[in-house]
Amino acid sequence: MMDIENDEHNTKQYEMRKKLKLARKGEDYNKILREYNIKCIRDNKKLSPIPLKMNIKEKIIKMAIDDPDDVFDYDFFCKAQSISKKTS
């Protein structure tokens, strides 16, 4: 039973990776986010990342591929970015 679940996850991740590689425009990323129902955490709520910038959407999709059980925390990402800019 566990092998079947792993195969399904691997297939889904493979498909997402293929679509991400072909994505060029914001709408391509939006389509992936909608198709796989990928969410992120913003303002302590699970929300759609569609209004975010394209480079953030790419990071969110990559995280969904690499760690499908986790959710991208946009608030934490923004804090980490501001800290790294201050130390640079």
Explain the overall architecture.
- This protein is mainly alpha-helical and 88 residues long.
- The protein has one domain (2-87).
- 66% of the residues lie in helices and 9% in strands.
- The protein is built from 4 helices and 3 strands.
- Strands 2-1-3 form a 3-stranded mixed beta sheet.
- Strand 1 (40-42) and strand 2 (45-47) form a beta hairpin.
- Helix 1 (2-22) packs antiparallel against helix 3.
- It starts with a helix and ends with a helix.
Give the structural class. mainly alpha
Number of domains: 1
Shape, per Cα inertia axes:
globular
Mean model confidence by pLDDT: 89
Q: Give the H and E element order.
A: HHEEHEH
Helix and strand layout, with pairings?
Elements: H1 2-22, H2 26-35, E1 40-42, E2 45-47, H3 54-66, E3 72-73, H4 74-87
Parallel strand pairs: 1-3
Antiparallel strand pairs: 1-2
Helix pairs in contact: 1-3, 2-3
Q: What's this, in brief?
A:
The protein has four helices and three strands, in the order ααββαβα. The protein is mostly helical. The protein has a three-stranded mixed sheet.
Which features characterize this protein?
3-stranded mixed sheet; 88 residues; mainly alpha; globular; 9% strand; 4 helices
